[in-house]
């Protein structure tokens, strides 16, 4: 039995992106992270888990900013270093945020989001029903033009490892802040590339849902 067969889910019908809701901005300037916040690392590790039921609750800008900074933000401004490692420091993974008001790309150097598509594409980020209920679906995208100097046989492997490091940063941030999350490999790459308005050299690798857990 495969991993996917073991997961309980209600598959979503394939729908076009929904109409965006809320105020749309070309750029979303993110607040800096509170570096003293959250539960200690060992507590976060003890709490990390995958969640597949989300409350229909919005996400604050502070949380969004901290989450993206934790994911792959600049943690050493003097060198431009990131919170996640990447082979040769190529940083070939872009983070796309599917929000109710639009699809945005995170730019770590400026710690802001840039609008890519004025549509609510959360329902396009996976087949499971919770993806359009949670306030945020992240998509990790390989920018192929960034790794042309890497031998072809290493490109996908290194990119997958880099995306894995980023999604674990997000998972630990969520665990430290009492948020729910799940990493998702079950995505429709072709539809998602269109919904995110990707270029030919850009490939979605993984998605990750984030939100508040449903109250028990
Ligand atoms: C690469 C990868 C892909 C995954 N894809 C999915 C997915 O598409 N849908 C899903 O619900 N969970 C997905 N998961 C989550 C796993 O099912 C989950 O981590 C596993 O069942 C163990 O549960 P735990 O995370 O709560 O420890 C994925 C995890 C990884 C690492």
Can you walk me through this structure?
The protein is of the alpha+beta class. The chain has one domain (3-211): NADH Oxidase, CATH 3.40.109.10. 26% of the residues lie in helices and 23% in strands. The strands form two sheets. Strands 1-6-5-4-7-9-8 form a seven-stranded antiparallel β-sheet, sandwiched between helices. It is globular, with a radius of gyration of 16 Å. The chain binds flavin mononucleotide. Flavin mononucleotide is lined by residues 3, 7, 49-50, 52, 128, 182-186.
Secondary structure elements and their pairing?
Layout: H1 3-6, E1 27-29, H2 41-47, H3 61-72, E2 74-76, E3 81-82, E4 93-99, E5 102-107, E6 112-117, E7 136-143, H4 152-177, E8 180-184, H5 189-195, E9 202-211
Antiparallel strand pairs: 1-6, 2-3, 4-5, 4-7, 5-6, 7-9, 8-9
Helix pairs in contact: 2-4, 3-4
The structure holds flavin mononucleotide (FMN).
Q: Give the CATH level 1 class.
A: Alpha Beta
CATH architecture classification name: 3-Layer(aba) Sandwich
CATH topology: NADH Oxidase
Proportion of β residues?
15-25%
Give every kind of bound small molecule, once each: flavin mononucleotide
